[in-house]
Amino acid sequence: MDLLGKALMDYYRGQAPEALWSHGSLGDDEEVPVSYFFRGHPQMPPLEQKALEHCRGKVLDIGCGAGSHSLYLQEQGLACLGLDHSPLAIDVARQRGVHETACENILDFRVGDFDTLLLLMNGIGIAGDLAGLRALLKHLAGLLRPGGQILLDSTDIIYMFEADEDGGVWVPGSVSYYGEVTYRWSYGKQEGESFPWLFVDFRTLEEEAALAGLEAELLETGAHFDYLARLSRPAYENRA
């Protein structure tokens, strides 16, 4: 059930959208304004703006949604392909003017040779868990040209857990890493299925990136445990 895509399409068509809610396993239920997915560059958070400044060459916008980032990059003269697994989101992105799109799961997408892979709005969360992150980074590295980069933002959600007197943090035993959570969408009276999502701290990201042959760089930190990172594929690789 493509509830997010339906909400995007309803908004784009000028219909009064129902309330779109995100329900998290940590009790972080939140109403999400659909208009947020249609924001222009001035309304984007500073980390997103900074990420767009760092884009170069041929760009793959992974999880492009309604296409706001792709549209901005096109305006800057960059070749950008917007990718999303939601058919309705891709339809909206196309109608808004995104020139190149693909409706596909990123793990099934194998057309490589990109200079920049863009995963914003915690797009790396599609990995689901740490095991999925390792597989995803290895796949993404194969889509990059030598010297290419992955730009992503995420959040260290350790602040959401209670600390004991010794400074340790209590994490539910049902997960292997505290950043592994689940979400589901609800839109109007419709309820979506739960899906896994990952928030990864930079140190863990750096370790997993190294296993995929990528070098991690912390570009900027945000106001609330969020950060922007670049993962780079070496320009010259030892294939011995």
UniProtKB/TrEMBL annotation:
All residue ranges annotated as the Methyltransferase domain in the record: 59-148
Single GO molecular function: methyltransferase activity
UniProt-listed InterPro entries: Methyltransf_25, SAM-dependent_MTases_sf
KW Amino-acid biosynthesis (keyword) present: no
This protein's UniProt keywords: Methyltransferase, S-adenosyl-L-methionine, Transferase
Protein name as catalogued: Class I SAM-dependent methyltransferase
Species classification: Bacteria, Pseudomonadati, Bacteroidota, Flavobacteriia, Flavobacteriales
Secretion signal, residue range per the UniProt entry: none
Keyword Acyltransferase: no
GO biological process: methylation
